Amino acid sequence: MTRRDDMDARQAAALLAWQVEMGADEAIAEMPIDRLAGEKPPAPPRKEMPPAAPEAAQPRQYPPQAGPRDPAARQQAAQAAQCATLEEIAAALDAMTDFPLRATATHTVHTDGNPRAHVMLIGEAPGREEDLRGRPFVGRSGQLLDRMLAAIGLSRQAEEPESSVLISNVVFWRPPGNRKPTEQEAAHCLPWLERTMEIARPRVIVCLGATPAHHLTGQTKGILKLRGTWLEYAGKDGAIPVLPTLHPAYLLRQPVQKRLAWRDFLSLKIRLEELRQT
Ligand code: URA
Questions:
Q1: Is any ligand 1 atom within 6 A of the Cβ of residue 124?
Q2: CA-CA distance, 214 to 55, in Å (whole number)?
Q3: How far is CA 160 from CA 79, 113, 170, 256, in A?
Q4: Closest by alpha carbon to 181, among 75, 72, 105?
Q5: H-type helices in 99-209, by residue range?
Q6: What is the band of 69 on the pLDDT scale with cuts at 50, 70, 90?
Q7: pLDDT per residue as tens digits for the range 144-189
Q8: Strand 119-123 relative to strand 165-169, pairing
Q9: Is the pLDDT of residue 60 over 90?
Q10: Is residue 96 one of the residues assigned to a domain?
Q11: What is the CATH number of the domain that holds 79?
Q12: Overall pTM surpassing 0.85 (yes/no)
């Protein structure tokens, strides 16, 4: 994780750009400080960061694998289990030419980033740019996501697992017109996403928006209620902490909400620092 004193110029510029985007374009505190009042001005009241809720205090989340599964999804899970690498999963997905979403898509969009990364980010579905380029989060929302990641010392290009990320989606093909994927489409893709997580073994999962948060944790609350709360994904090899946050496309439409996403990213940064010490 990047400390302030070993940040390079590129990371410092990314952090500054992100803070300006969040609206922090003035170098002032939230409360005025009377510098003539004495040696030590009273500290302005601190705005608490949302707590990274301790996992023990969280109710056990519904494990998606234990839920009812239709035979079609079980069949997908059996096929996905045959794949031993992310490349094999991507190739198997790309070969599904009879699946309606695959048939209308230009490219299969599976993962991007470092397969050994400690952090895995999961979005909803590829958009137009992603469909054209075959990589997740490469459009405008992806560019914002990259800046947010850089501000906490993470990047999809980094080679070290501690400072890199792996990115994927709930569904691997663009739904026509960028509509929300149907339950059936998500159910078809989920076994493949689960297999992807089993192979990549991330230490932390970040859900970008409600769709991945709902599918991975079984929670049904809206994203504004779920965001910033640490939940769990019940993976085959054990529980993985999940942090739901706001989708970057939503942040582009509602820039004032970037401050909430920033809090979540700081919570992620703290969590990763804690994990590094264990
Ligand atoms: N939005 C998503 O949820 N995923 C992408 O890959 C791009 C935009």
A1: yes
A2: 18
A3: 31, 11, 25, 33
A4: 105
A5: 100-104, 128-133, 140-151, 183-200
A6: confident
A7: 999 999 999 999 999 999 999 999 999 999 999 999 999 999 999 9
A8: parallel
A9: no
A10: yes
A11: 3.40.470.10
A12: no
Gap from CA of 139 to ligand 1 centroid (Å): 8
User: What are the pLDDT digits (tens) for 9-18?
Assistant: 766 776 666 6
Residue 86 located in a structural domain: yes
CA of 132 to the centre of ligand 1 (A): 13
Task: Tell how strand 204-208 and strand 231-235 pair up.
Answer: unpaired
What is the three-class DSSP state of 43? Answer: coil
Name the residue of 112, 130, 156, 170 whose CB sits within 8 Å of the most ligand 1 atoms, as the mutation to test its pocket: 130
Asked if residues 231 and 58 have their Cβ atoms less than 8 Å apart, the reply is yes
Q: How confident is the model at residue 49 (pLDDT cuts 50, 70, 90)?
A: very low
Please name which of 222, 221, 241 lies closest in space to residue 231, comparing C-alpha atoms: 241
Q: How far apart are CA 146 and CA 150, in angstroms?
A: 6
Please state, in angstroms and rounded to a whole number, the distance separating the CA atoms of residues 149 and 218. Answer: 26
The verdict on the CB of residue 146 being under 6 Å from ligand 1 is: no
Assigned domain for 59 exists: no
Ligand 1 mean position, distance from CA 169 (Å): 7
What is the Å distance from ligand 1's center to 123 Cα? 5
As a whole number of angstroms, the distance between CA 186 and CA 172 comes to 9
User: Domain containing 83: what range?
Assistant: 71-276
Provide the number of structural domains found in the chain. 1
Which pLDDT score is estimated for 9?
74
Cβ–Cβ < 8 Å for 68, 182: no
Tell me if 149 is assigned to some domain. Answer: yes
Write out pLDDT tens, residues 100-114: 999 999 999 999 999
